[in-house]
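WARN no homologs supplied; continuing
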Amino acid sequence: MDCSDTRRLIDASLDGELDLPAQLALEAHTAACAACREAYARRRALVRRVRVGGESFAMPDALRRRLLDSLPQGEPSPNPVPAPVRRWPWGKAWSWPWAWLTGGLSLASAALAVALTLVVIMPGRDAALERDLVDAHLRSLMADHLTDVPSSDRHTVKPWFNGRIDLSPPVPDLAEQGFPLAGGRLDYVDGRPVAVLVYRRARHVINLFVWPEPADPADAPRFRGAQGYNVLHWTGPGLALWAVSDLNRGELEDFQRLWSQASRSS
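OK structure emitted
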């Protein structure tokens, strides 16, 4: 795959239209090519800005003045001409100014309804991020790329990230609690490289995505389902943590609690 192929595939990738081999080829190329990686990140950021709703903007002063200037000016006429009276088919009288007002209100109501609908249906940033995380979880299972450093020894996994990413995440050993460490890897999520710690629970895999992020260490965990998988998000001191697995909610919350306790004491 060359750069021209990559640029053509970026939009299809962001729209979720690529099959797995094409997606993996695209990611392999962008990992090695700084120009294409930057183009991919810029386009991804643009898509996220377009998708995230709820923003409001103040009317520019120049536009406000133009609108005010377009309104009728001057003192009212001493002998105003009465507005023409019309009647509905069933006989009720109405005047043109009242019709204009009610029509304007109807138009404003329709515009407000459309705006509110767009705000409701436009996905927020967290929803788009959760899709990326679940996609990364699936790729790790389907492409036989679960770990870059397969090891159950946290003293092997933790230093492996040094020099590969601007983060050395806590790597607690939870084998005695039923969540043995399987290794670690690098992944690319939300336009940035992230550390991934891989744990197991019987035959289930837990991908724990970790990256630096200023946040309140006391932020309560947030759980939700996405694409048939469970996603649990919480924060640590300067860290954002997202666990993705097909484990049930109770076991995934147990993992979060045990991981947080062990990481504080390690």
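The longest helix spans residues 96-121.
OK
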